[in-house]
Structures are given as C-alpha cells and as structure tokens.
Amino acid sequence: MDLQNICLCCMHELPFGAEVCPNCSKNVREPQHAPLLQKRYVLGGRYLIGFCTDSSTDCVVYSGFDLQNNVPVSVCEFLPKNLIVRGEGEPSVSVRVGYGAMYESCLQSFVKLWKTLMSLNRTPALPTVKEIFSANSTAYAVCEKLESINLETYLSSSEEKFNWERVKNVFRPILIALRKLNANGIVHAAVSPETILVGSDGKLHLSGFSIPQTKSDVIELRALSSSGFAPIELSDRRLHVGTYTDVYSVMAVMYKVLTGIRPQNAAERAVNDSMFIPQEYAKELDKKAIETILSALAVYPEARIKTVDELFTLLYPERAEAADEAKSRIKKEETQPKTAVSEPKADKPPEKEKKPTLPPQKNELPESGSSITLKVILTALLVAAMVFVTAYSTLLYKYFDVPFLDKALSAMTFLPMNGETKEHTTKPPETTESSAPISKSVIVADFTQLTYRDIESSKTFNENFDIEFSFEPSREVEKNSIISQSIPAGKTVEQGTKIKIVVSSGKPYVVLRDVMGMKYEDAYSLLTKDGFVVQKVIKENDGSRTPGTVYTMSLVAGLEFEEGTTVTLSVWGE
Q: pTM, whole model, 2 decimals?
C-alpha cells in the first residue's frame, strides 16, 4: 500500500488526486490542530497517526497504521485536555501548573484500565489490545482496527424491526462483556448507542472506555454521558456510581432498539416519570420480561437490579436452567452404575390365566431342596454372563474402534472442514429384537487448521461436540490459532463427545524491568535476556548527565509484554 496515498481516517487507499475519500467521505486535506497529534506523525517509530476519530474528557482515539505489520490500528492516547497543554506541532504534552499529582494518578489509572482490557482480549465484544506503552510524557494503547458504525447511526439509517427475543440475542455479547468488566472492577458508566458499535461482522462491540476519575467528583474529568441513557447517579453527585449504573444504561439502549423511542432523561423522571413500554410491544412480553425491564430502569439505584450478572440471569434463565440440568445429569450418571441399553421388546400378548396346580400324583416325586438350589445358581450365573458380555461390548463400542460394532451404525454424520454438516446414511439393517441401537456419529474435524473464533462462533461445531478451550502461550503457533486437539482429526465419535482444544495465547508475556538510570550495556543485556528487542536512541547531553546511562524507556516498566516486543531506550550521549 502507498502510504502517501491513503485516507488517514479509514486507512483505505485513495484514487489518484482524490480530496474526499469515497469509502468514509472524509476530506483528506482537513487539518488537525493541537492538542491533537499531527497527521502522519510516526508514534514510537512504528504507528502512523491519522485523524482523531473519537474524543472524551480523558483520551482521544486516532486512526493509525502499523508500519511493522502493515495493518490498520486504533491508537488511544491519554489526553485529559483540562490537565495538559500541547503546542501546535509538538508531540510531547506539558502538565498544567498545580495539576501534577492529579495527572500522575490519572495516568496510572489509564494504564491500569487498558492493561485490564488487554487481559480480556478473548472477550468478543471488547477491543483487542495489542500494546500499551509510554511516550511524549503520556501513555498509549494500540488496538486492532474495527470496521464499524455506532448503533445510533445504524438505527437511524435502518428500518429493521427488533422483537424482544432478537434484542436479547444481539445484546448478549455486550452483557457478557459488561459482566467481565464489572468482575474486574471496571464500571463502564457510558453505555449508549454512541459507544456501542455495529461491526462489519454484524455483531455489537463496546467502546468508550474511561478511567475511574471520570465517574467521580473530579470536575475537570467529569464523564460525558448521553441523555436518556445515563442514570441519575451520573448527574446527581450525592449518589454513587456502581455496577447498577451499567444495568440502567444497557437496558435503556435495549429499550431504544426494541421500541425506537429514546428513553426519558433520568433527572426528568425523578420529577415526573412518564416513561412506559408502549402497548404494541408490551402485549408481546410476558410478565417476567416486563418486570425485568422496569426493574433495570428504576430511577434510583436502591430500586434497581444491582448487577449485570443478575440482569443476565433474569434475561436468559433457560441457560442457567440448562447448566443446572447438565450438572445434575452428570452427577446422577456418576453415582449410578452404567448398564447396557437395549431396545424395548415388542408388547407380548396377555398371558392366559394359569390353571390351578394339581398336587403331585402318587407316582411323581417332588424336587429336592438341593436340586432347586442348583437351578437358582445356574440361572444367576447365566444372567451374570449375559450382563458381562453386554457391558463389555458396550465398553468396546464406546471407547475403542471395534469394526464389527461400527457396522451396526445406521446414520453417520460427516463434518467437513468448512464447518457444514454433511449427512451420510447407510441402508439400515432390518429391525430385529437383537439389533444394536442406532446412534448419530460425527467425524472430528482438523481444528488445527482453524482459529479460536472460527470454532467458537460455529453453530455446527457447538451442536456436534462439547468443546472445552484452554489457552497456552506458544512461540511457534500464532495467537488464537490451535495448538492441539484431544481427539485426532478424522476419528468417528458419538455426537456430543467432549473435545479439549488448546489455543495459542500468543508469545509468552514477560514483565518489563525498570532500567532507567542504568548503564546502557547492562540494561541491554538484562532486557535481551528477558526476551525483549532493544533499540538505542542517543539523547543530547548538556554535560550535567552521566554519559551512557538510560534516560527514558518507550514502554511502561512493570507491565507485561509479549516476548520479542521492541523497547527503545533513550541514552545520554557524551
């Protein structure tokens, strides 16, 4: 790609001489002024900076391009405009007088927030964080680029109608993401149609993250909330923000998608609550659904559903019940002895009424006690032998490849690599009382040729197998690709068989040591031993600094980074 001829907003190639991008309609000649970074500034020697695409009180998001991997990215810069100044064309920020301590505290919160988000990279509705580092007296988080529009734009340009079941279905990933954020001590507190994105994959994604100080009484960093979707605690400082804040906001957005109506402002509702569910939608909801919606949208926190986890359970009770039933069934199967299952026998005609037994004639002798005992023993041994043979056959069939048993299968299902189920049937044997039970089987796919997202999102795979994922670091296997599977590809197994799949979490992570003030040679030796790639930049020395010592680091010490990450050390010159 010609980097001199790309749109710095969407990072798509431009037609020759174009001033307006045909992809995103952005005027490519539009200037970008301070305190934003200049267009085409190369951050950290790697990321080409484009237009600012989003802004809040504590950070801005730029469209960027990774020059090392040749892919578009999003670059989030910590830029609390009320606390800093940046001159036109200058990359470094300066903290306003008297705000030094507050800035440092907020900067640490920014790094902690994005480090937590990085630890949740495998959550589909959350951004995939590639790198966190410091530069220009501030900090940056680099994420994978998501082709998307916000939900507000999508709804205004679409005539699609959503019933309640569909609303619940499309919002499930958002609720899962909020559950994980809350579990890690993060309250989003800005969920709205502007911060929920509709990706090119047709799924919802969450954006608009901010540091905790934006939800507190720090006036200079008060979070920007969206009218109608922000609960009363975001405008009334006597109240506190909590997990119930996200409950209100996400349900307000679901209400808007369902009805097409923007919710009434929370402050207005506190005075005169006129918010309701229109009759045309209410008549399609059961009593429990209506109670859940109204409880999640209660004006004051004390009357509201307290956590997203509780809201999730109320919205998807069938999943919780299914999980409980599965656990109960597994426990029951573990406690009961396994027995062979045979086909039910055809109903026998009713037995004729038995005639009364006549007493033995004089010339007939009754059976002795020892003879009766012998018959009972022989019968018991015969029954035991039959049970053993049946159980042994079942065991062979279940755990081993036994050809003569495989021939008894009548409905085979083959699973090709494209994820589609292909039915293959053989002529069923004539049904007899001794025929083996017919069961559905599937062919195990070669999962090592797929990625975690391919498998996790495949309806076919999840219907045919009980898949259990685990994640391990790997230097050889690319991140999110498959390292191994517990059952080899091509093997025929019963539908529902558990398969354990090991997914690569990428290269091992190592903690970056603080080498500032050390001799460059010592710092270089230490960091390369840890697995980092070290670059050196000479800093002009006015004579007051010790030559050859490390002045700054391009990455934040104390954080974890992938093995092989490049760290640039600024070293005082002679």
A: 0.58
